[in-house]
Structure formats: C-alpha cells, structure tokens
Specification:
The chain is an alpha/beta fold and 208 residues long. It contains 7 helices and 7 strands, in the order H-H-H-E-H-E-H-E-E-H-E-H-E-E. Strands 3-2-1-4-5-7-6 form a 7-stranded mixed sheet, with helices on both faces. Helix 6 links the parallel strand 4 and strand 5. It starts with a helix and ends in a 7-residue tail after the last strand. 36% of the residues are buried. Bound molecules: S-adenosylmethionine. S-adenosylmethionine (SAM) binds next to strand 2.
Length: 208
C-alpha cells in the first residue's frame, strides 16, 4: 500500500489529477439518480451546496432548474472548469475555491439542501465527523442532505469504502434517515455499489 493510499489525498494530489486531465471519477454528465430525485419531486428549488463539486455537472443541472447553487472545491482546476462551463452556458451559480471544512460562519444555516456525490468517499475516514459537523452547521433546520455514498468494498482510498452502517452511525445523531437504499439506477461502473440517501437535519434541540 502506498503512502498516498494509506493517508488519503491532500489538495495537491487532487490538483494533480486536474493538471493531468485524469478525472476517472467524472461521469461526464449529471448522475442519473439526481435526475430521478428531481423528476420524482423529492427536491424543491432553494439554496443548494455541492461540496467537492469537481467539474460540477450537478451544479449545472440544478442551476438550470432554478436552484441557487454553490459549488465548493479546493482544487483550482475544478473551480476553473466549472467557472468556464457556467460562463459558456450563461448560467448563474456561485463557485467557491475553499476547503469545505473551513467554510466561514457566514454559511451557517444558509442552505436548504446539500448534494453528496463522491465527496464523502474522497475525504479520509477520520474526517467524517468533521463532514457531519460541517453539513449540520451549514444546513437550515429541516434541510436535506441527499446523495450517493460509494460502497467500493475495497481497502484504502480514495475512494474510501462507505457501508450502510457507516452512514447510519455518522448521520443518525443529527439527521432523520428518510431514505437509505441501494441505488438501482447507478452508472454502470458503480452498479450495486451506491447508497442513495435522503437525510433530513433534525431541529437543534432533537439531536442526540
Ligand atoms: C472524487 S472528486 C469528485 C468530484 C465530483 N463530486 C464528481 O463526482 O465528479 C473529489 C473532489 O473533492 C475535492 N475535495 C477534496 N477534499 C476537499 C475539501 N476538503 N474541500 C473542498 N474540496 C475538496 C477535490 O478537489 C475533488 O475535486
């Protein structure tokens, strides 16, 4: 096991993928489960944040549907690609060049929803409590965390394996689990390996 795999990625490791145009994780389009959630009226337009957004296919998809979207990524390569796509499409969305875990307090309770797509598996497992803390901080009470969690079934990472138990253990304190199921319409290479989750932030006085 290489040092990189044992320790996860630093910002420079991600940026190198953008420098080398090596974006193996990128589906090249919005992930179909998000299209389903939208078409099934699970989601209503509002403020939406997408951490670790990469090229931001989801940012674009939801900006086109009337959401006020904020994409966050700490790799300049991702920010540049998404900025160019938005400009090309003449679309409005905010793109922040930031470490998700260091979002300023101005973002606190600022979002109706957060979209998860290959970000939870991209961070080191020891950063997962900080993920839960940050999403709990920036969502409004009753806000939704929805997305896809990647069960790679493999050791090391990124991507780091995420099981159903991991999701329940990390999120059930601060979130009600409204939906958690193996996704039946994942992309071919993630078939049977994604958990589709719809989690609702509990009111502050009900967290435990
Ligand atoms: C596996 S890629 C996924 C990109 C995108 N979500 C997708 O599915 O195409 C992970 C992304 O998260 C970004 N990232 C990793 N850690 C981050 C952090 N702490 N704050 C912000 N972005 C981060 C990386 O720069 C990279 O663009």
């Amino acid at each position: 096991m290489t040092e990189e795999i044992r320790n996860g990625y630093e910002q420079a490791d991600w940026q190198k993928h953008y420098d080398d145009n090596d974006l193996a994780w990128d589906l090249g389009e919005v992930a179909q489960p998000f299209v389903r959630l939208w078409e099934d009226n699970v989601l209503q337009p509002g403020t939406l944040i997408v951490p670790g957004c990469g090229q931001g296919h989801e940012v674009i998809y939801f900006a086109e549907r009337g959401f006020r979207v904020t994409g966050v990524d700490y790799s300049p390569g991702a920010v540049k690609l998404l900025g160019e796509s938005l400009k090309h499409k003449d679309l409005n969305a905010q793109v922040l060049h930031r470490d998700f875990f260091e979002l300023e307090t101005a973002h606190d309770q600022g979002y109706d929803a957060m979209l998860e797509q290959t970000f939870f598996c991209a961070i080191r497992p020891d950063q997962r409590p900080a993920y839960v803390e940050t999403v709990s901080r920036i969502l409004k009470s009753g806000g939704l965390l929805f997305g896809l969690f990647y069960e790679t079934g493999e050791e090391g990472g990124p991507p780091f394996n995420t099981t159903e138990a991991d999701i329940r253990n990390h999120f059930s304190g601060a979130f009600d689990i409204e939906r958690l199921e193996k996704c039946s319409f994942s992309s071919e290479k993630r078939k049977d390996k994604e958990w589709l989750a719809v989690l609702r932030k509990k009111p502050e006085n009900q967290t435990g």
